[in-house]
């Protein structure tokens, strides 16, 4: 059977594929923001390739500095290159951190013009939690680091996002296990460390724990139940079971 057809319609193969994606170390982080450009997009080198890059700030009463990047060709790049300082855009794309780990970077997937009074600050982080949860002096919030790994060719890079939770999100961050696979949604915020240097963190609105720690999850979520014609082993394959030519 054609691998693509098998992946779509064969239940055991699709379940293995989805589980493999969820447990892969190359996780995901995305952002949708309304920003105002602080500079004209220019060509800049990144990992041996040229990209378009521009500094920007989120709209609102507490602006956050972000770096926007896009490929150096194609319709997204052409439209981005035509923008000037002060242009207000709605942008969506992959979220990462700069080399210092302090400034948010959005690699554009799409963008369009926006009005100056519009506001949007929505991010999603899928990654694995660190072992320590630090409580603020006020006791009202906690912060915890979340590792998101990504590949650029043969090079792996890990961004450590700082998640901050209040109320229910605080309880969830405190109770999640070390190495737990989580999906956090929230908003970017900019804070200042003790040395007076700004850094970016994510104010968490919702947190869901998908894995209970470690690099994989072998727990059987359907223990005591039946799916006609299938057993737990049909769904428990790992990356080694995947056809090598699947894309």
Topology of helices and strands:
Elements: H1 3-9, H2 11-23, E1 28-37, E2 42-46, E3 49-58, E4 65-71, H3 75-81, E5 88-97, E6 104-113, E7 121-135, E8 141-152, E9 155-166, H4 167-175, E10 181-192, E11 198-209
Parallel strand pairs: 4-6, 9-11
Antiparallel strand pairs: 1-3, 1-5, 1-7, 2-3, 3-4, 5-6, 7-8, 7-10, 8-9, 10-11
Question: How would you describe this protein?
Answer:
It contains four helices and eleven strands, in the order ααββββαβββββαββ. The chain is mainly beta and 247 residues long. The chain has a single domain (27-209), classed as Nucleic acid-binding proteins (OB fold (Dihydrolipoamide Acetyltransferase, E2P), Beta Barrel), CATH 2.40.50.140. The longest helix is centred in the N-terminal third of the chain and has 13 residues, at 11-23.
């Amino acid at each position: 059977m054609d691998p693509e057809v098998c992946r779509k319609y064969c239940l055991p193969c699709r379940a293995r594929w989805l589980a493999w994606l969820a447990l892969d170390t190359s996780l995901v982080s995305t952002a949708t923001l309304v920003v105002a450009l602080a500079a004209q997009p220019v060509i800049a080198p990144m990992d041996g390739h040229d990209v378009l890059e521009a500094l920007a700030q989120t709209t609102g009463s507490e602006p956050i500095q972000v770096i926007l990047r896009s490929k150096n060709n194609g319709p997204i790049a052409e439209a981005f290159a035509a923008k000037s300082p002060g242009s207000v855009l709605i942008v969506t794309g992959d979220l990462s951190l700069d080399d210092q780990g302090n400034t948010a970077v959005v690699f554009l997937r799409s963008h369009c013009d926006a009005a100056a009074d519009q506001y949007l600050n929505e991010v999603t982080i899928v990654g694995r939690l660190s072992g320590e949860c630090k409580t603020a002096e006020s006791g009202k919030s906690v912060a915890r680091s979340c590792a998101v790994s990504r590949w650029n060719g043969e090079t792996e890079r890990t961004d450590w996002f700082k998640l901050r939770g209040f109320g229910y999100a605080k309880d969830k961050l405190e109770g999640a296990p070390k190495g737990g696979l989580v999906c956090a949604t929230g908003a970017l915020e900019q804070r200042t460390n003790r040395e007076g240097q700004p850094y970016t963190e994510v104010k968490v609105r919702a947190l869901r724990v998908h894995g209970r720690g470690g690099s994989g999850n072998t727990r059987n979520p359907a223990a005591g139940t039946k799916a006609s014609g299938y057993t737990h082993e049909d769904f428990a394959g790992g990356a080694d079971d995947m056809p090598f030519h699947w894309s």
